Protein: Large ribosomal subunit protein uL10
Amino acid sequence: MARPDKAAAVAELTDKFRSSNAAVLTEYRGLTVAQLKTLRRSLGENAQYAVVKNTLTKIAANEAGITLDDQLFAGPTAVAFVTGDPVESAKGLRDFAKDNPNLVIKGGVLDGKALSADEIKKLADLESREVLLAKLAGAMKGKQSQAAALFQALPSKLVRTVDALRAKQAEQGGAE
Structure:
């Protein structure tokens, strides 16, 4: 790799791999420029979709400490580098691929771990981070409400029991 332009391209791709939470490799053969533009928009603000050269991308991934299967680098390749929520970008890719079968998800990387195409599809089926956090907060709030009601029920039940005992004693005392 003697050419400085290739060295710069590898350095840029290495930086993108290192600074991304996730990267998804796709095959885009048969997509028009307009479709690629639509795909870039559907990925959201936290993802960057770039057409890359296979050899340079493989070298950059290795330099970033990521081991990817050689089969991922067959055919024309584009990479979605995700810096935000990987679920949102995976959903964008999955939904776009449903409408445009020419887009093929090959595999990817999440936090340095290689993922297959099926694992990326499973990632797309997850709910977003915000939704999961909201569900967790709701569950925690619900459990706190249940605990408060339980703690409140014990003293009130005790008071009702004592009142019932007093009433029973008063009846028995009044009858004798």
